[in-house]
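Below is how a single chain appears once it has passed through the pipeline. First comes the sequence as given, then the structure the pipeline wrote out for it. We keep one example in the README because the format questions we get most often are answered faster by looking than by reading.
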Amino acid sequence: MLGNFLTSVKRRNSQLVVDAQLHFDEGVRLASKGLYPKALMELKLATRANPHHAEARIELGRTYHKMCQLPKAIKAYLCALKVRPNFVAAYKNLGAAYDDLGQFVEALGAYSKAIVLAPQDPELRNDLGLAYFNIGSYPEAIKAFNQALNIEPGNGRAHYGLGLVYLDLGDIEMASAEHDHLNGRNDKHLALQLLEKIQYQIRQAS
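Resulting structure:
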């Protein structure tokens, strides 16, 4: 009798896992098409069917983020971390949500935890550098961007971030050198953005 009951429970749990994955896949598909309210519904069903589906919680957070519902996005990312404490993507997305809310100190904490788990990811160093830049901690920002370049020489975001720091410090020459790096690696989009900021600062100074 007990054996039959346990078999029934296992079968039901297995079906819930399958159902959760189906809802998750559909939620991702809908979100990719910009159908965010419908995507939210599917992703919520996924987390109800399988509360341990960390990826569904991350995607739920991303969808809220795209809808500019940042407190809900943060809550979803934190729930993902409760399910999977070493989830690098959850910390990275959490940091981005804090950044967009202007909570830069909290963003620093999230990115720092992600870096402990993925120390060779240059983009996490860039995220950290930008968070330091946003609070005016320029030496720490420079250090983080240079660490990204040590991991991946020529990284465009790192050169762009350094350019922003040097501009804030009033060092047009160093900012221009970072622009030259971007031009040299054919990163035209970031090079143009940085050039516009340099030209604006020159105009303001004249």
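The mean pLDDT is 91.

See the next section for the split statistics.
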